[in-house]
Design goal:
The complex is a heterodimer of chains A (219) and B (233). Chain A has 219 residues and is α/β, with parallel strands linked by helices. Chain A is built from five helices and 13 strands.
């Protein structure tokens, strides 16, 4: 079965982000979106530890321990950047000022509940960071994740079995098999990877999906 | 004359008492006041409650305070990191209490303390296990959780420059929790890279006004540190 590559997933998120948007990219896969933002758009990246206008990683030898991202890796500040303290930074999320955030996930439910902070395993040390603030804080919350677990189970579920990060907060799910919108009427498929029939995607996912328009018309 | 300058980190932390609640600035090692923490370890106060975003990195600063078993309880958002081995060991051995707080709630609870707010309703964490048993309210159709301020006896923070009135400016993303912790503690102790003459800081760019700072100590820049890539924030 063909799957979207990570680059294809990142491109599909990046193309939805309009000129002038303020965006927070979560750690891991979402970070890749930064490399795929259309060059003709000015998009301002936010990092929770107090920077708007975050630029790419510095050249080797130019790292500054006082200039890092949420993953504590060295970054740069672009012309037009600004620094601010933590309460302001999270006010930008909670106050609805961020246009987009892109997060990884363990599970997303049919209602858009997100689980991405804790496996709930008894011996795991819990850590939440800014995950819960981001989940409820941006106008549009995108999730990037693999569609299936290593065991082949769908990560899109009727109800999250992992501890939730936020309730009904996810707008769009971008997986290696499909792009799916969370709508008041349920999950609506926007795009499927080439060669994967809708019925097969439906079978793999388990929860009810609405076919994209082209497929619905053909049926 | 007002003079908040202390001659050494040792003297600046001399009165931290056993059982104190101590806020420590920094996000990972950016903005962490390592020399003040070293002085606190040497000073010997124990049974501390620490408020920090993380729970120590590698073998510096807060991690060493944990290793020295001076901390009874830690309030933080992201304890587990690739290099948080001292915390991990204490936690697994049941030798430290953890209050896990979403990062924005942590920041706002600290801010609330400094601003005299008795509590606030936040949407962050609603419906999650971190809001279990907390009071909730629906306002204009949105769900909120009641959170209370976090006050501290002491705050240890790091800034770039300060003057004898305690006015501070910071450096890049090392600002993080410094300004809000400065306001939330009864006694705020700042280590600064450079103490400048009164009037040398442009009032338009002062980030923390001196009213929030009790003591400051000059600690010149150490050898260049390398940012430690850790796990998530």
């Amino acid at each position: 079965m063909r799957r979207f590559t990570r680059e294809e997933m990142a491109t599909r998120v990046a193309r939805d982000i309009p000129n002038g948007a303020y965006v927070n990219l979560g750690i891991g896969l979402p970070t890749m979106v930064a490399n795929h933002l259309p060059r003709d758009r000015e998009i301002v990246l936010h990092t929770e530890n107090g920077l708007l206008g975050m630029g790419p990683a510095p050249e080797a030898g130019e790292e500054d321990p006082d200039l890092i991202n949420a993953g504590k890796q060295p970054v740069t500040a672009l012309p037009g950047a600004s620094y601010f303290h933590h309460a302001d930074s999270f006010g930008m999320m909670r106050g609805g000022h961020l246009d987009f955030c892109v997060l990884g996930a363990f599970q997303v439910s049919v209602k858009g509940d997100l689980a991405n902070w804790h496996t709930g395993a008894k011996d795991a040390i819990p850590a939440v960071g800014g995950a819960m603030d981001l989940a409820i804080g941006a106008k549009r919350v995108y999730v990037m994740m693999e569609h299936l677990t290593k065991k082949g189970e769908s990560k899109i579920v009727p109800q999250c079995t992992y501890p939730v990060t936020g309730i009904a907060c996810v707008s769009r799910i971008v997986t290696d098999l499909a792009i799916i919108d969370v709508t008041p009427d349920g999950l609506a498929v926007v795009e499927i990877v080439d060669g994967l029939p809708f019925d097969e995607l439906q079978r793999l996912t388990g929860v009810p999906l609405r076919a994209p328009r082209a497929v619905a018309a053909a049926n | 004359m007002i003079n908040k300058i202390f001659p050494s980190v040792r003297e600046a932390v001399a009165d931290v008492h056993d059982g104190a609640t101590v806020m420590i600035g920094g996000f990972g090692t950016a903005g962490m006041p390592s020399e003040l923490i070293d002085a606190l370890i040497e000073q010997g106060a124990r049974d501390l409650t620490i408020v920090n975003n993380n729970a120590g990195n590698g073998d510096v600063g807060l991690a060493l305070l944990l290793k020295a078993k001076r901390v009874r309880r830690i309030i933080c958002s992201f304890p587990r990191q690739a290099d948080s081995w001292h915390f991990d060991n204490l936690y697994r051995a049941g030798e430290i209490e953890l209050e896990l707080v979403p990062q924005g709630n942590l920041a706002e609870r600290i801010r609330a303390a400094g601003a005299g707010i008795g509590g606030f309703y936040t949407p962050t964490g609603y419906g999650t296990e971190l809001a279990e048993d907390k009071e909730t309210r629906t306002i204009d159709g949105r769900h909120y959780v009641l959170e209370y301020p976090i006050h501290a006896d002491f705050a240890l923070i790091k800034a770039l420059r300060g003057d004898r009135w305690g006015n501070l400016v910071y450096r890049k993303t090392a600002r993080n929790f410094g300004p809000i912790m400065a306001a939330a503690a009864k006694t705020t102790i700042a280590q600064v890279r450079e103490i400048v003459n009164l009037g040398d800081l442009d009032p338009e760019v002062v980030v923390t006004p001196g009213i929030f700072v009790t003591r400051l100590v000059e600690v010149p820049a150490a050898l260049k540190l390398v940012a430690q890539p850790g796990a998530a924030a």
